[in-house]
């Protein structure tokens, strides 16, 4: 029997996809174990026996374990290089070069932020830091005169005018699902969203981001402006909240990756 290990940042709640994913794998004849390195709950024997390791939500110490697995040749979902790349927004922007992203300037100090913004309304992001929240501020050059306390260096991006709705594209292998969510720049973080069927253009864009980032499971934040879709953020292994068939798709993708190993 094949074995899959789940290395997670916190115990999986019943409301997450993991219980159903593990159940579906069991039905398909695949054994699974859950490991919680943040709580020092790792069964090294079971981990070593795994043909594939799925990981999510790990801190730097947890990612050290993933790095060791990567170096040992263990098949990972998501890949260690892909996850590491997303922790550095400068590296992520380089990976997305050629795809539609906001015009971006990279500066090292806060006084340079206002100068880079000029007369435009801009979004300022710390090069490090997860998600589109505390590590992001919005403003004009005048509004950005005061240091907001973000760690340097900074990405200064043109503000994309697209209403107050994000097109969140959830990618699971080749499958792409969509949710319309209020922009966190307008209302803050929210888990609420309305499902929508992504247009072929958005599906193709999401798959291109997948290929550039070397990720199997990812979320792509897209703003649809008058000139077309613009990628504004990428997250590895989202929670897929609101995606009804997410657990089935993730389980099937894991089975596909196992089959690829022969």
Automatic annotation (TrEMBL):
Check the record and name the InterPro entries matching this protein: ATP-grasp, ATP-grasp_RimK-type, Inositol_tetrakis-P_1-kinase
**Do you know which Pfam families this protein is assigned to?**
RimK
User: What cellular-component terms does GO give this entry?
Assistant: cytoplasm
> Which GO-annotated molecular functions does the record name?
ATP binding; inositol-1,3,4-trisphosphate 5-kinase activity; inositol-1,3,4-trisphosphate 6-kinase activity; inositol-3,4,5,6-tetrakisphosphate 1-kinase activity; isomerase activity; magnesium ion binding
Give a GO biological-process term: inositol trisphosphate metabolic process
What Gene3D superfamilies is this protein classified in?
Answer: ATP-grasp fold, B domain
Assigned keywords, A-Z: ATP-binding, Isomerase, Nucleotide-binding
- The question of whether Nucleus is a record keyword is answered with no
List residues of the ATP-grasp domain: 91-260
Q: Per the UniProt record, which residue ranges are transmembrane? A: none
Stated name of the protein: ATP-grasp domain-containing protein
Q: Which organism is it from?
A: Ornithinimicrobium ciconiae
The top of its lineage is:
Bacteria, Bacillati, Actinomycetota, Actinomycetes, Micrococcales
